[in-house]
């Protein structure tokens, strides 16, 4: 089934307080921080939206706390796509789909990157197939939206600060609504008016 903006808000309202696997933030805090980093970097609205929603698959396919410790890869980068495809174009969907492989690529092309990964990201890297070979990295980089996915991945890695302040979920859902396909937002009245003040969720 297709998700609406209101449905996405409901998912964050219902499950956003869950711990973000092995990290000192919640799922909602992580999403808002990633989107904030994208916005502060001057990213387009589509990439800000992808940053907000890149881990929505965790909320749709809930596997309990820290599934990587149990050897589980929930394939979250793919899981949300069928639910989001009626709502968003590839400029939102492709960075989401590619953000896991972007980690594998960055480990291959940036000698300093892997050392900065959290313990949970290192565990998930193994489950997700490990570091790309040189050929795999070059193949990844040749794909449309690969650069957006690399940017999203770097913001993703930084969005784990329990004390960071962000704009509200409503603020970012209004941005998401602005890049939906015509007639597809299905936002209930007043449910995501833009919040502009910065605070933690």
Automatic annotation (TrEMBL):
Transmembrane segments: none annotated. Gene3D superfamilies: Hypothetical protein af1432. Residues 29-102 form the HD domain. It holds the Pfam family HD. It comes from the Bacteria. InterPro entries: HD/PDEase_dom, HD_domain, OP_Dioxygenase, Phosphonate_degrad-assoc. PANTHER family: HD DOMAIN-CONTAINING PROTEIN, PTHR40202. This is Phosphonate degradation operons associated HDIG domain protein. It comes from Caballeronia arationis.
